[in-house]
């Protein structure tokens, strides 16, 4: 029975990898090195657990609510409900300006003028038009790295995460590293 379960998990992982498509994310060869590998999960006994992600931005946006934009940054693709925002989803500050993601920050994330505290008290989610107006111009993710262990491990041992950062992320998946990023003004 155990062999069948391992085989089934293996087939599932291969199916996910085979279906993986890389979308245009608006990052050009001039400004980034992007790795979009499907190894985003830690395979456990019979379940898959997402790996932890750390990121940096081109400004001090750790208190600002992130949303996901289209690759051309003209449309909002995803945003949280106010009830989804609470202290447990705010990023954790780490070494060298990195943040431990607890909300789903990605390559196409933008940051709003709303702080976590402000957004969480809204009675309803803002309209797309209003939310678009609240996006901080030029606020982007500059570095995005997938760690070799899940978020629970990263939260329990931030010293280990800081060591990985200081050592240049050995054994990690560097998904985004922008080479030329204009400073946030």
Automatic annotation (TrEMBL):
Keywords: Signal
Top-rank taxon, per record: Bacteria
Signal peptide residue numbers: 1-17
The keyword Signal is annotated on this UniProt entry: yes
Protein name: Uncharacterized protein
């Amino acid at each position: 029975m155990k062999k069948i379960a391992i085989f089934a998990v293996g087939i599932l992982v291969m199916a996910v990898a085979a279906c993986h498509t890389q979308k245009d994310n608006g990052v050009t060869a001039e400004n980034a090195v992007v790795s979009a590998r499907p190894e985003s999960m830690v395979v456990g006994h019979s379940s898959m657990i997402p790996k932890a992600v750390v990121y940096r931005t081109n400004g001090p946006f750790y208190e600002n609510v992130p949303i996901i934009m289209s690759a051309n940054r003209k449309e909002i693709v995803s945003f949280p409900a106010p009830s989804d925002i609470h202290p447990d989803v705010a990023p954790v500050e780490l070494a060298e300006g990195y943040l431990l993601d607890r909300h789903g920050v990605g390559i196409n994330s933008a940051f709003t003028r709303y702080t976590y505290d402000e957004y969480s008290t809204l009675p309803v989610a803002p309209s797309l038009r209003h939310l678009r107006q609240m996006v901080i111009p030029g606020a982007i993710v500059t570095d995005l790295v997938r760690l070799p262990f899940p978020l629970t491990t990263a939260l329990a041992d931030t010293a280990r995460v800081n060591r990985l950062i200081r050592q240049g992320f050995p054994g990690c998946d560097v998904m985004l590293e922008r080479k030329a990023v204009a400073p946030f003004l």
